[in-house]
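Sanity check. The docking grid for 1,3-dihydroxyacetonephosphate depends on where the pocket ends up, so I'm generating a full predicted complex first rather than guessing from homology. Inputs follow.
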Amino acid sequence: MVSNLSNSQSSSSQADTTSQTNQAHAHSHRRPAPEATLAILGAGAWGKALATIARHKNHQVRLWSRSSEESLEEVLADIDMLVSAIPMKGVATTAAKIQEIGLPDYVTIITATKGLDPETTRTPSQIWEADFPNHPIVVLSGPNLSKEIEQELPAATVVSSTDMAAAYEVQTVFSSSLFRVYTSPDPLGTELGGTLKNVIAIAVGVCDGLKLGTNAKSALITRALTEILRVGTHLGGQTETFFGLSGLGDMLATCSSVLSRNYRVGYGLAQGKKLEQILEELQSTAEGVNTANVLVKIANREQIPIPICRQVYRLLNHKITPQEAVEALMERDLKAEFCDLF
Ligand SMILES: NC(=O)C1=CN([C@@H]2O[C@H](COP(=O)(O)OP(=O)(O)OC[C@H]3O[C@@H](n4cnc5c(N)ncnc54)[C@H](OP(=O)(O)O)[C@@H]3O)[C@@H](O)[C@H]2O)C=CC1
Ligand SMILES: O=C(CO)COP(=O)(O)O
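Predicted complex below; grid placement will be based on this.
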């Protein structure tokens, strides 16, 4: 399907990645990246798109979901990298299953889930890290609407890890002329940007569904960035990360496209549809619904002001109408623009 995802980096960037790959191997005994064997867990929209990208780089890809004929044991046998594109609700149980099966220490774990665990409030990478403390863990996140990637449209993403050798290796594995992969040393910030923006995409869907106009949408997205920065840095992400592809970049993509499931949740609510009906029609994951609930739990615990996300939470939990949510935001106490950023 995607014919142009071949590796056509310039010679200088090839030199860069070659030295990066050498650096990766200097730090580990992992096998060379050029023809890696990848298990991609989660055969939904995102797992399939990632599989397409990897296959066009000539990697061996085994795509798995719970309804696959192959067992998880079979899929995991002799792999170099494990990619998790599982929805949040399945991450902890799947990680526990893999722990039981066993995974050699050299296998890099790449997490592409955008969510927060409802029980523990942990991010997906924190779950993988806790279960696999000896493995390199890499977060992959960015403005990556899967339908556009399947249509061979260019996109960029971020791979982030405290183990930079692993990040460089994953960068090499996924980079192509249509998928530009940047590295970052801030996995938590990278992950939180992609996760928190889903709640904002619901808010923006409401804004568009109510036809509140461009001024309102611009104000909403801008103030939402302040809110994401406040939460994200409080939880340990680096400020600059939230201005990058996995933060602002992903928020712009998700808040401006009807391809976003989260945006469509908000849009549907503004049209008076019931949440259950919208989710039924989507037949796909909208992580912002769960994330809004977990985020409010975190904000209450840590005393972090999240006015926009709190209205989304109240709307999703049938405590308020879309119009009341708008009024509540507009009628808050007046204040300086940057008084409470950090
Ligand atoms: N779609 C996109 O554009 C992007 C999505 N993401 C993120 O990737 C994650 C997955 O999204 P997406 O692929 O769109 O979701 P989909 O709903 O399209 O697919 C989900 C996949 O996961 C499997 N699955 C569902 N529930 C569980 C579970 N409890 N345990 C294990 N596996 C499960 C499903 O198959 P089965 O039921 O057979 O197991 C299915 O293959 C989300 O966190 C999303 O935010 C990130 C970037 C882009
Ligand atoms: O995360 C995404 C794009 O980067 C996908 O967004 P949705 O889950 O809202 O479709």
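Relevant for the grid: Residues 189-330 form a domain with the N-(1-d-carboxylethyl)-l-norvaline Dehydrogenase; domain 2 fold (CATH 1.10.1040.10).
Also worth noting: The mean pLDDT is 91.
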